[in-house]
Amino acid sequence: MSPRKPAQPKMGDAVRLSADGLAKVLGDLEARLLTAVWQFDEPVTARTVHEMVIVEHEVALLTVVTVLNKLVEKQILTRRKLHGLLHYEAAMAPGDFHDFVSRRMVEGVIDFAPERLAACFVDVLAERDPAQLDRLARLVDEARRRRG
Hints:
Layout: H1 28-38, E1 44-45, H2 46-53, H3 61-73, E2 77-82, E3 85-90, H4 94-110, H5 114-128, H6 130-147
Antiparallel strand pairs: 1-3, 2-3
């Protein structure tokens, strides 16, 4: 019997280009809560997450619980009962989540104008981060070598 593949997050198709970071693909509060959960190395209660988030963002505990449960439904968080309290934990490490979302975004964009995507991508990298352009060149070379 083959091992079960971990469940993939259920992400919508909407991307908010004007938002920052995770809020591009999640709601603002979802992004704040997921970021807070990632800061712990163990499952965490909604109250603990609330206490962390309320420092910078006024929000009710019940709202935090509701949004954490929505992240569970989306398979971005997991939830289990420990010591009589519900605890939440990220289903994926931050890097794995970013890889998953980035791939989904590229797969969605490539259908829009595949003949222009590579050129636009290179132009934007050259403008914003030339070091990443060098990294892209190395990744392309590695992919070509693997293909033979």
